[in-house]
Amino acid sequence: MVGSRYILHGTLLPFDISLTSNYNRAMQTRDIVSLISKIREKVNRFIVSEMAKNGMEGIGTSHGDIIYALLNMPRMTMADISQRINKDKSTVTALVEKLVQLGYVTKERSQEDARVVYVALTPKGSELEQIFESISHNMLDVFYFNISDEEKEELLRVLSKIYNNF
Prior knowledge:
The chain is of the alpha+beta class. The protein is 60% helix and 14% strand. It contains eight helices and five strands. The strands form two sheets. It has a three-stranded antiparallel β-sheet. Strand 4 and strand 5 form a beta hairpin. Helix 2 (32-53) runs antiparallel to helix 7 and helix 4 packs across helix 5 (89-101). It starts with a strand and ends with a helix.
């Protein structure tokens, strides 16, 4: 596909794929895991940058995962959050503490079982819903730029199969 193009920092640049050898194509196939990891890093940097632009400095995507989970279910236990965002309980505890300090969430011990701690959004935390929706929309616009609906479906199908292999 000589004459293909790609976008770098908003500039359309030519890309001559015929210059890649069979070896490079084989390496590209083997390096898919690395590419997925790099995409994840770029998406996370994009989200953190967008959060900072919206006045949410000092929190990362894992904090955002907790807030997003709480936007969908207003009150959750630490164990529920841990399971929902796929992080261990000690990590969730540290992340929640930071969100408490920033005024986005509150913690409350269960009256029935003192070992159980509930986390809930504060009004300040609830105000983030519109910002999160905007950031999500912007990220998806970039993520799926120049990708057809059919390609999106195929990508989801293949990635789901890979995910289920583990």
